[in-house]
Amino acid sequence: MERNYHQGNGMNIDSATIEKNVTCMVEKNRLSHHDSQKKFEIRCPRGTRDYGPHDMALREHVLNVVTECFKRHGAVTIDTPVFELRDILMGKYGEEGGKLVPFARYLAMNKTVMYLKRYHIGKVYRRDNPSRGRFREFYQCDFDIAGTYDPMIPEAELLRIINEILIALDIGSFEVKVNHRLLLDGMFAVCGVPKKDFKTVCSSIDKLDKLPWEDVRNELCVEKHIQCGVVSRLETYIQHNSSLTNLDLLKWFEDDESASKNSDIQRAISEMRQLLDYCELFGVLPTVVIEPSLARGLDYYTGAIFEVTLTDSSKKIQKENGDVSEIQGLNIGSVAGGGRYDNLVSMFLPKHKVPCVGISIGIERLFTIMKEKAKMEFVRSKNTQVLVASAQKKLVKERMKICRMLWDSNIKAEMILKANPKMLDQMQYCEEHKIPLAIIVGERELEEGILKLRDVPSRTEQDIPREHLVEELNRRLKVLE
């Protein structure tokens, strides 16, 4: 085949190549023109968000509090894939149950593991409509106890754990709502709810924390076609006087003519009495509220059910100038939930039963509260303890030597990464990032074998012999802890 060539600037150019390049240029120009007509929006995918340095510092603080508490209670950590086989995950358990599936699958695959306290902290994903404090990508903090133990002892420890975490985070008052799967089953049975309608009735009753009873009644009678007489009987069991104590409420169920004859209700009452006793011993009883309308997780929960909500997230914060400001409470729903799920493992292996109880903490929702609080308080994004500064030019190598000495001594130190930074800029950097101490080296300090140690908040300075610097820094940092 004959090829045509064009000669120019000493180069032979294939005419086919020229034609191809011209075509590409025309197409590129067309696409460029098309793209210029279309507005390009730079944003995160819906239901996700970025975290800057201050956000990450706050997040790290929250996760450290949670992790330390989990370890304090003897838990070990395991890690499972962020995705599971479709056949394992799909269809059976709903969104909340889906979070339990990886751990249940792990236990089913590791048959020798019969007793385990485990925690897991990591990102999980859901296909959902995002809302305030609710995202498609989010961190989940789980604590589960697997194994056969005496009733309600593991449950009581879980309630102690969530109390410790929320008190340590200081986000305001909260309550731990408690119900029992058998109490729900028993109430529905004595009220005449058909078994096939248990789940749909549950989904309506569970809205009582957001809707008045009249709206829930209308949904049950009109939309879900539950007999109005049945709904009226349900009301007597679910809508109780809020002044009743936990023990008064349990006694009401014990004394009720219909409830007293139902074995499920009586077993639930007995176990919840036991739980209240253990919660008192663990010092968490004041936060526990028996709530018969807490109705979720019928696909997997078999015993106690928990939900933790903030009752008042308003906090008074003293700012650095001495003023007191208040953060208004945020309506972000529950911050933790869980319960007993004894049958989930046996769904994978029918002959392998491992009773489990667990609680999941919605870190994103806690983070929303903590972020509001952080607007009134300064949260350090850096852990730097010492800035190594210079008072004159051409001292970058001296600063590097001092940094090396401090790093070798496990002191968190840094320097401005410029050869000749201005002294004012270095001190402003300290104040901006709340770095408490600065070491200043200059020509005089080099001649005399000393270093100037500056207390940044008070702006006081002291000359320290170079060989005693690490010792003096450790002493001061210990006081600052």
Automatic annotation (TrEMBL):
SUPFAM superfamilies: Class II aaRS ABD-related, Class II aaRS and biotin synthetases. PROSITE patterns: AA_TRNA_LIGASE_II. GO terms for biological process: histidyl-tRNA aminoacylation; mitochondrial translation; nematode larval development. The keyword Transferase does not apply. Keywords: Aminoacyl-tRNA synthetase, ATP-binding, Ligase, Nucleotide-binding, Protein biosynthesis. InterPro entries: aa-tRNA-synth_II (IPR006195), aa-tRNA-synth_II/BPL/LPL (IPR045864), Anticodon-bd (IPR004154), Anticodon-bd_dom_sf (IPR036621), HisRS-like_core (IPR041715), HisRS/HisZ (IPR004516), HisRS_anticodon (IPR033656). It catalyses: tRNA(His) + L-histidine + ATP = L-histidyl-tRNA(His) + AMP + diphosphate + H(+). GO terms for cellular component: cytosol; mitochondrion. Residues 119-370 form the Aminoacyl-transfer RNA synthetases class-II family profile domain. The keyword Transferase does not apply. Its EC number is 6.1.1.21. L-histidine binds at R126, Q140, D144, R296, Y300, Y301. It is an enzyme of class 6 (ligase). GO terms for molecular function: ATP binding; histidine-tRNA ligase activity; RNA binding. It holds the Pfam family tRNA-synt_His. Belongs to the class-II aminoacyl-tRNA synthetase family. This is histidine--tRNA ligase. It comes from Setaria digitata.
